[in-house]
């Protein structure tokens, strides 16, 4: 059994470096690039970020910022950490759950920002397909995180 296990691990190696570590490095480089481009776009081209500014576009800019940070970056990191962190399974589960909770919190703040923007500019909420798909996605993600918390604490 041990020999077969070593053989299956060797099939995932390229030039002595595990493919999973190459993918992890690539994913982290993408993480840095996405964060940099997002901040340049929002701070330089879209006037910045603020919850309390009189310029309402700064409030609107919080929506894409928190959605990308929460859904794309932090939840992607949560997915990777479960298989790439060299720790005990229980530690990986807690870290995985913690990152998913941060991702959910970030997406909820992004929803709050867009609803606050709609309220402050006297626009009607939930008129587009984008808004309905977004609400559904955050709801299903919240359901996923609640079930994850249940699984981690019941195991």
Task: Give the secondary structure arrangement, pairings included.
Layout: H1 2-10, E1 13-14, E2 17-18, H2 19-45, H3 56-84, H4 89-120, H5 129-154
Antiparallel strand pairs: 1-2
Helix pairs in contact: 2-3, 3-4, 4-5
Give an account of the 3D structure.
It comes from Solanum tuberosum. Residues 26-155 form the Cytochrome b561 domain. Pfam families: Cytochrom_B561 (PF03188). It is found in: Membrane. The protein is mainly α and 155 residues long. It has helices spanning 2-10, 19-45, 56-84, 89-120, 129-154; strands at residues 13-14, 17-18. The protein has a two-stranded antiparallel sheet. Helix 2 (19-45) runs antiparallel to helix 3. The relative contact order is 0.09. Residues 7-16 have low confidence and may be disordered.
Straight-line N-to-C gap: 27 Å
CATH fold-level assignment of the domain at 47-154: Four Helix Bundle (Hemerythrin (Met), subunit A)
Order of helices and strands: HEEHHHH
What is the CATH architecture term of the domain at 47-154? Up-down Bundle
* Strand content range: under 5%
Average pLDDT figure: 87
Helix/strand structural class: mainly alpha
Total E-strand runs: 2
Which value, in Å, is the CA radius of gyration?
A: 20 Å
Discrete helix count: 5
Strand order of the largest sheet: 1-2
Q: Return residue spans where pLDDT drops below 50 for at least 5 consecutive residues.
A: 7-16
Main sheet overview: 2 strands, antiparallel
The helical percent reads over 70%
Index terms:
single chain; 155 residues; mainly alpha; Four Helix Bundle (Hemerythrin (Met), subunit A); two-stranded antiparallel sheet; 5 helices; 2 strands; 79% helix; globular
């Amino acid at each position: 059994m041990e020999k077969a296990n070593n053989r299956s691990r060797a099939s995932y190696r390229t030039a002595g470096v595990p493919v999973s570590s190459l993918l992890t490095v690539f994913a982290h480089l993408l993480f840095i690039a996405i964060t940099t481009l997002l901040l340049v776009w929002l701070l330089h081209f879209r006037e910045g970020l603020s919850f309390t500014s009189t310029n309402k576009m700064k409030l609107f800019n919080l929506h894409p910022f928190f959605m990308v940070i929460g859904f794309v970056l932090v939840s992607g990191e949560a997915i990777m950490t479960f298989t790439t962190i060299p720790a005990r399974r229980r530690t990986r589960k807690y870290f995985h759950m913690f990152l998913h909770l941060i991702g959910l919190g970030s997406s909820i703040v992004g929803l709050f920002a867009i609803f606050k923007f709609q309220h402050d500019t006297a626009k009607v909420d939930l008129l587009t397909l984008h808004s309905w798909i977004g609400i559904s996605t955050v709801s299903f993600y919240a359901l996923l995180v609640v079930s994850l918390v249940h699984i981690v604490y019941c195991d």
